[in-house]
Amino acid sequence: MRVLIAEDERLLADTIAIGLRREAMAVDVVHDGESALERLGINDYDVLVLDRDLPVRHGDEVCRPVAGSGAEVRVLMLTAAADVPERVAGLGLGADDYLTKPFAFAELIARVRSLSRRARPAAPPVLRRAGLTLDPARREVFRDDRYLPLANKEFAVLEELLRADGAVVSAETLLEKAWDENIDPFTNVVRVTMMTLRRKLGDPPVIVTVPGAGYRIP
Questions:
Q1: What is the CATH number of domain 127-216?
Q2: Could you tell me how far CA 210 lies from the centroid of its own chain?
Q3: Predicted confidence (pLDDT) per residue in 100-141, tens digit
């Protein structure tokens, strides 16, 4: 899952980013509306966490074109205004959900995960395939009832492969969904992560390499 945070309160933005990365999400951060639109034009995001009161370009001016573009990104709007007319106005702009500050971080995570499910083809809350069971909400993975302690990136890669439901997932897609924009596009981090993930999953192997195309779990 890849998330863009557009929040001008830098401490809050960094706190949200750290928390979401601990949930195995890839997170990019910007601090004004103009930068948010630029990133949305470059990268494919599942969820945009959007502060309504952004500088340079107001959050409303970010939400409106995103909602009208037909893009799959879902918008969670943040605001300090808790009154009903403000919430109605934000949703009327095309936001998919609305959260007032201050908020409980557990609720933010739950809403982001809920929105990410809407951004993709419907998938069950718990993913199962080839003897593997992955629960995104609990951050747990089992193979044949054996618990597997995975690092965040290993978890994110495995989740993308399971969500593909047997289809091939390219290394480029894994890089985009599991890492943020600071990663070197020529890095071998996907291959290295795949090696450690395969080792932890154990035998018999469940991840198949499709030469020249990517990886799949048949």
A1: 1.10.10.10
A2: 25
A3: 888 899 999 999 988 887 755 555 678 999 999 999 878 899
